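Hi W., the adenosine-5'-triphosphate complex you wanted:
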Amino acid sequence: MTLAFSLSGIAKRYPHFALQDVSLDLPEGQVMGLVGVNGAGKTTLLRLLTGLAAPDSGEVQVLGHRLPEGQVDAKRDIGFASEDMRLYRGQTLRWHMDLVSRIYPGWDEPYADDLVKRFELRPEQVLGGFSHGQRVKALLLLCLARRPRLLLLDEPTTGLDPVARLEVLEALADVLRDESRSVLFSSHNTHDVEQLADSITFLHKGRLVASADKHAFVDSWRRVVCQGALPAGLDAWPEIASARANGSVVEIKARAWNDQLPARLAAQGLQVQRADPMALEDIFVTAVRSGGVA
Ligand SMILES: Nc1ncnc2c1ncn2[C@@H]1O[C@H](COP(=O)(O)OP(=O)(O)OP(=O)(O)O)[C@@H](O)[C@H]1O
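Structure:
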């Protein structure tokens, strides 16, 4: 299996924050959603992969190149889009497109023109006059039309209105159909991740809380409604992320649902009435609150 990137035993410390013990692989052709609250360390992780930041310890490999030594080679095939990246406000979109096309031989002009139309951008307009949503789309266009092997997108849909968000998601979904391309995109929005990603990585306070195949991961969680009294120590079970009582109804969020769980709960005096699938948003909040995923 070829890896788009591999992070191994990474630590990166800032005065008030540390990314710790991060080991994470992305197989080539896969789309990974990186989910975390503000300040979880998502941008820091993406910057490590682009070589914009160096780890204090651990190893970073991108597209077969070890960073920092192989940074120049790796960067040729990485497309990084982040809101922090400044475009030239006084220059037109066409000027930016010409500039990027001269630097990157993989530039795909027909695809760039297609994205101009799809995003309803005006190539002759200077970027200083673009709205926030138009700037985000311009940045994505400049990144996507290079056809990089690895796309790193830092919150590509944040701040977009629903229509712009859908356009961006559709453009990304098109890109993702190409199986030789790999994507890591960060988001606060679990709906976007649920829609696009093959695998999900939760980051919280600089640590990986979970990283797994999306379907298997979502399928392992259940919201279990039981009748009975809440037994002590239930939330210490490794399969259980949270348990709370409301009168004689006990609600359990199980992170590792299995067929044996109802019988084990019955032995504690709890009768399982329902075990419902959970939305990714609910799983994320529960996982973060409970401090991890077994
Ligand atoms: N160059 C730096 N110097 C000092 N602290 C930094 C630096 N870069 C990031 N940090 C700190 O690291 C922490 C994680 O920041 P990061 O931007 O990686 O989080 P994030 O998950 O992307 O957050 P958000 O969703 O708000 O963008 C923050 O507390 C931030 O202040």
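The first strand starts at residue 3 and ends at 14.

W.
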